[in-house]
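Continuing the series of single-chain predictions for the mutant panel. This is the parent chain; the variants come on the following pages.
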Amino acid sequence: MGDLMARHEVIYFDTEFTCFSNPELLSLGAISTSGCEFYAEVAPIPFDACSDFVKAHVLPKFTGPQFSREDLASRFLSWLGNVGKPVVLLSDSQYDRDLVNSLCGGYPLPIPGGHRCVWQPLPGVVADNSHHALEDARGLRQTFKALCV
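Parent structure:
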């Protein structure tokens, strides 16, 4: 995996979503190995679809910015395109990967500039999960930065 990482920019990402039974994206956070960050929330928030847990532990941490799904997708794809080379997207949850694929129109992600992405799952992280997408993406980067050396 080291050679793959050397030719690509590594992006750690996390999402927050409404519930496990019928997940809808609420927020997306990402950070590159070099420390560039992306964070956005979906507007309007589908409160009725959120579990009690999400209402109590996730939504109170939302501070914006908020965008429509379409605008959030466009901004995230542009952010990935600005990396200027292929990306490896790392997350520790299939929910995260499925939600980003759905948001961005499927796999492969249509990254501007024709750059490709590779999904690489991480093992589940047993740690203090903050339930904030950017903070959790930062935690993934910290935990697995040895993979990118």
